[in-house]
Amino acid sequence: MKFLALYISFFTFLFLKINGTSQCTFNGTLTTSSNDSICLGETYNGLYAIGAFDYSWSPSLFLSDTALSNPTIIAPSQTTTYQVIGFDNSGCSDTAQVEIFIHNLPVVNAGEDTLICPGTNLQLNASGGLSFQWLVTDYLSNFLISNPIASPINPTEYIVEATDSNNCSNKDTINVQLHNNAIANAGFNVSICANQPYLLGASGGVSYSWEPSNYVNHPNSPTPLAFPDDDMDFTVEVTDSNGCKDTDTVQILIFTINTDSDTIVCKGDSIQLNIYGDPATEFIWTPYDGVSDSSSYEPWISPLTTTNYVITATDATGCSFTDTILLETPNVEAIIDAIIDTGCNGLYIDFINESSQNLSFSWNFSDNTTSNEFLLEKSIEFNSHLDAQLVVGDQLGCSDTANVSISSESLETYFNFNDYNPPNVFTPNGDSINDIFIIEMPGKINQCAELVIYNKWGEIQFSSLGNNLYWDGYTNTGILANQGIYYYSLRLNNESKMGHLQLFR
Questions:
Q1: What does the alpha-carbon distance between residue 49 and residue 71 come to, in Å, rounded to a whole number?
Q2: CATH number of residue 141's parent domain
Q3: At CA 432, angle to CA 429 and CA 435, rounded to 5?
Q4: Do residues 230 and 256 make contact, with C-beta atoms less than 8 angstroms apart?
Q5: Which CATH number characterizes residue 422's domain?
Q6: Which residues are CB-neighbours of 487 under 8 A, at least 6 positions away?
Q7: Cα 201 from Cα 118, distance rounded (Å)
Q8: What is the residue range of 161's domain?
Q9: Which residues pair with 245 in a beta bridge?
Q10: What gap in Å lies between CA 476 and CA 486, rounded to an integer?
């Protein structure tokens, strides 16, 4: 059909020429796509013409088919103005043209191929565009920027595509290779005795750096002396000839032990101590006083006074280590003083707390009474019994107890008339020598005793009751008694003793 149309058009044209008519008017309007621009080598499908029956494009450069209304431009390498002739069904034609401008591709640079150390980072830096996309994204920090951080673990070829202001794109490649890994060797783990240096030894590089550096004498030496004060890890960083780094760690174990913290142990109490740390085969506690077993790792200790106990432990290799624990024993002591006086009907006891006044205290008695007085008086009848207990304590909870037991016997135990013979001569002449006839009674018995003085005719000259059992030679009427012999009566609890005395002036 297309051939037939061309044939008819040709003969129509020829007919018009034979008849002397050269004028031919295109029936319609030939319309083309607008001028456009594309990137070098890009396939373009936007070229077209409409409004004709047949088409003829020229030049044929880069065109897929010159007779199509919309030929494809394939991989153009230069800017080209394309002309199209359009024929109607009468063979009349019209022409039009379209310019397709070719933009050069951006010059993209992904950087020079490089070698890096394993485990290190490389900052890529691509150029040549306004926007970037890395097509290999393995171990990239960001694949949509020009300068991502690459951390490859294997040799990797990174491809970047850059796009310029014309939206043209181009690619470039950077090949990242890896050096052989540096291999650090810090040696084998080791156990040593306390307070002993240890010679470290590292290999695998051309330079070295030890940490912690303040525990070695030369931190940049492959073989420094280490001075650990406890179990420690020493790490060496080695750098090889390529600048690649690696680290290794050696553990130094030091035989150490320790015991419980300093503590307070009340007098009379016991505490079980414990040993912590590395295994040991032998233990010695000093001093031995108060220690249940001086060779035990967990003895019971009952200190009598504040004491520093030292534990020395030895391991299977012969390493020894010591630690100290202070067991503080507060001086908490209950002290009772009891002063006993004999009374008319029993005993009078003054109980005195002689303990430190910094201690709290309380009294407990067998008569079911209590007290918080430092000094208090109690009394018991003859032939009876009283127990006293003093409990003292400090702010730390330590306490002590003292006990006193008081037993009274009969009055005769404390005072017997038959054993009592007062002086029988006195001279009340004012010379301060033997001026008084006095009855000295034990304790407080005199409070219930009575002294009566008689003359030879049985007449009462003087009497005294209670605390004033003495005669100064004056009668009860205040008259000086005459020189001579007198008689006395000493009465106590319905008992009496008679005697005589000689008064000289």
A1: 9
A2: 2.60.40
A3: 55
A4: yes
A5: 2.60.40.3080
A6: 453, 454, 455, 456, 498, 499, 500, 501
A7: 24
A8: 114-178
A9: 239
A10: 15
In the block, which residue shows the tokens 């409004």? 51
Residues 65, 29 share a domain: yes
31 and 66 assigned to the same domain:
yes
Contact 462, 474 (CB under 8 A): yes
The arithmetic mean of pLDDT across residues 406-417, rounded, is: 85
Look-up of token digits 């707390």? 353
C-alpha 462/C-alpha 481 separation (Å) is 10
In a domain, 87, yes or no: yes
What's the pLDDT tens digit per position in 62-104? 999 999 999 999 999 999 999 999 999 999 999 999 999 999 9
| Contact yes or no for 219/211 (Cβ under 8 A) | yes
Q: Which residues contact 361 (CB under 8 A, 6 or more apart)?
A: 334, 353, 355, 372, 390, 391, 392, 393
Q: Are residues 19 and 73 in the same domain?
A: yes
* 165 Cβ contact list (under 8 Å, min separation 6): 130
Say yes or no to pLDDT of 462 above 90: yes
End position of a domain, from candidates 328, 353, 368:
328
**Torsions phi, psi for 454 (to 5 deg):** -120, 150
Domain boundary among 58, 74, 103: 103
Strand order, beta sheet including 336-342? 336-342, 346-353, 375-381
Q: Are residues 8 and 99 in the same domain?
A: yes
Q: Is 91 left (phi over 0), alpha (psi -120 to 50) or beta?
A: left
- Residue 25 class from Cβ within 10 Å (0-12 exposed, 13-18 middle, 19+ buried)? exposed
- Cα 368-370-373 angle, rounded to 5 deg: 155
From residue 6, alpha-carbon distances to 25, 87, 292 in Å are 16, 9, 129
Considering the domain architecture, whether residues 31 and 55 belong to the same structural domain is answered as: yes
Specify whether 147 is located in the same domain as 212. Answer: no
Is 362 a member of any domain? yes
**One domain, residues 57 and 136:** no
Number of folded domains in the chain? 6
Under the banding of pLDDT at 50, 70 and 90, the label for residue 412 is: confident
Q: Which of 352, 336, 327 is nearest to 401 (CA)?
A: 336
Here the CATH number for the domain that contains residue 81 is 2.60.40.10
pLDDT tens for each residue of 252-308: 999 999 999 999 999 889 999 999 999 999 999 999 999 999 999 899 999 989 999
Burial class, 437, CB count within 10 angstroms (exposed 0-12 / middle 13-18 / buried 19+):
buried
For 189-210, letters b (16+ CB in 10 Å) and e give eeebbeeeebebebebbeebbb
Question: Do 16 and 66 belong to one domain?
Answer: yes
| CB-based contact 301:291 (threshold 8 Å) | yes
